[in-house]
Amino acid sequence: NAGVTQTPKFQVLKTGQSMTLQCAQDMNHNSMYWYRQDPGMGLRLIYYSASEGTTDKGEVPNGYNVSRLNKREFSLRLESAAPSQTSVYFCASSTPRGPSGNTIYFGEGSWLTVV
Amino acid sequence: GESVGLHLPTLSVQEGDNSIINCAYSNSASDYFIWYKQESGKGPQFIIDIRSNMDKRQGQRVTVLLNKTVKHLSLQIAATQPGDSAVYFCAENRVRNQGGKLIFGQGTELSVKP
Known about the structure:
The structure holds two protein chains of two kinds. Chain A is mainly beta.
């Protein structure tokens, strides 16, 4: 079972370059998310997609764009990378667990360094 | 401001002892809480969850306690093993039926001494 797969695992960018992080899940989940994790901090939500065709901003959306290509895939794009975007990025997907709350499954992470 | 936070950034325990990791939250409207385990170089892994209509839930070697009066959450790990060494995060779901908007705490690093 692949679960949530994200690529690339490691990437170094120069300031101003653009790149796209790819994410795919094979669990038939409706909701998908992109988080970033910085040292000494918990995960912060960048964008999420409650269902195919919809996307919404999370806590820290500035400098990012997303595309929910289909039910399986949710990509994160940095149009003009900045050193402040150096972080570990996690894609996730979720399935409902009743009236409130969802169980969220994470990918292995993408380490991005902007120099 | 509203936040989900952890009392201690690090916790060191002896193998075989019980571990208790604490978490505080500030939004009384939160109704779903999750504990995640994150090993080095990996994504967070779901451990256990609890809804606000419960005050205790048990899993395999883990127990989560919820005290809504003082907005406090704890994760108890029985007979801690070296494989339990990781960073543990509590997370709070504040948006009913829209899951995924989890607010994560800073994390507690658990270190198990042999």
